[in-house]
Design brief:
- This is Major Facilitator Superfamily protein.
- InterPro entries: MFS_trans_sf (IPR036259).
- It is a multi-pass membrane protein.
- It comes from Caballeronia choica.
- Keywords: Cell membrane, Membrane, Transmembrane, Transmembrane helix.
- By secondary structure, the protein is mainly α.
- It folds into 2 domains: 93 residues, no CATH class; 190 residues, Up-down Bundle (Growth Hormone, Chain: A).
- 81% of the residues lie in helices and 0% in strands.
- The chain has 15 helices and no strands.
- The protein is globular, with a radius of gyration of 21 Å.
- 35% of the residues are buried.
Length: 346
């Protein structure tokens, strides 16, 4: 799919197609449920989830081209930070609205909401974005039709470090999503309001950092090594979460985790758009998402394999793995982390 993003000249049409795919499959899910087709609700949801993941890859890969070509290098970090602010607002309001909608509506009515959102996004893309066309270059034609193109990381090692950095910081978020409900309900014996407060603290931390970066006129210095040190610090905080002496400390920890997550994510996204060759944006975005998905799959499998483990043990073990991975990446590739990629040197 990443190769498809790179090979399609009309990026605006591709971005609209990603949104319309969301609309198509959401409406299909409504029809399947309404007419009680034998596929079953659970199978329908699995198919819908896979389709939405593919659509997000199409739309996200096309959006990378707009961010790379239409936004100057000096303003890109601020623009990405501004987008992250909007994302945090959408996540907070969307999550709350989804829970409310699911509690008062039928599944068919609730699924109309993402359908309308997808249709609105497609219309806005069609009306507001420039007609961006990127033709096939000589480098594009030489690359070939490989499936995952992981071999490209040998040509651009900095991009592998960027992808690993993004996967590690997303892993911290995935650990929190997986273990926090159990920590609140069974380990700390607290209620849903406490869970919501902690999730809000994470989002407020991410929002605050995004707002600060959006207002900065100059990009922050430091290479990927700086981000890996932040990830290492975040993994230590993550390991200490189940041992927080007070609920206020737990809130402060997740505020710090959310702030670190947003900081590393914005810098990683900016660095990716600056260092990745234009004709490989789709493939490297797909590679990065695959690496993040593999990391998430391993994290979510740990409680299934180690089913009798305490929540505190899971926090400690997974945080230790993330810390070791960050330290190894920092130690074994100092030349990669301190030098520019082949793309940026050109």
């Amino acid at each position: 799919m990443g190769r498809l993003v790179d090979a399609t000249p009309r990026k605006k049409a591709l971005l609209c197609a990603g949104q319309l795919t969301v609309l198509l499959f959401t409406m299909t899910a409504i029809a399947v449920h309404h007419y009680a087709i034998a596929i079953g609700d659970f199978s329908m949801l699995i198919a819908l989830t896979i389709a939405l993941a593919g659509a997000s890859l199409l739309a996200g890969g096309a959006l990378d081209y707009f961010l790379r070509i239409c936004i100057p290098d000096g303003a890109r970090a601020r623009r990405i930070a501004s987008m992250n602010i909007v994302t945090q607002i959408a996540l907070i309001t969307g999550t709350g609205a989804a829970g409310f909608a699911a509690s008062i509506m039928t599944i068919e009515t609730a699924l109309i909401i993402p359908s309308l959102c997808a249709a609105t996004c497609a219309i806005l893309c069609l009306l507001c974005l420039p007609d961006l066309r990127v033709g096939k270059s000589a480098e594009h034609k030489r690359t070939g039709w490989g499936a995952i193109h992981a071999v490209l990381y040998f040509q651009f090692p900095v991009l592998f470090s960027i992808a690993c950095c993004g996967a590690l910081v997303f892993s911290i978020g995935q650990v929190t999503n997986m273990l926090l409900p159990g920590l609140i309900a069974f380990f700390l014996k607290l209620g849903s309001i406490n869970y919501s407060t902690i999730e809000a603290a994470w989002s407020i931390g991410a929002f605050s950092v995004s707002a600060c970066l959006a207002m900065m006129k100059k990009a922050l210095g430091g290479g990927i090594g700086c981000d890996l040190l932040i990830i290492s610090s975040m993994s230590v905080v993550l390991a200490l979460v189940p041992f927080a002496p007070a609920f206020s400390v737990l809130i402060a920890m997740h505020f710090a985790l959310g702030a670190g997550f947003a900081f590393v994510r914005i810098r990683t996204e900016t660095r990716f758009l600056e260092d990745c060759p234009v004709h490989l944006l789709g493939r490297f975005r797909a590679n990065s998402m695959a690496l993040t998905s593999v990391a998430g799959l391993l994290i979510y499998c740990i409680p299934l394999i180690w089913s009798d483990a305490l929540i505190s043990s899971l926090y400690l073990s997974i945080a230790a793995v993330i810390l070791v991975a960050a330290v190894i990446l920092l130690a074994v590739s100092p030349s990669v982390l301190l030098t520019k990629s082949r793309a940026s040197s050109k």
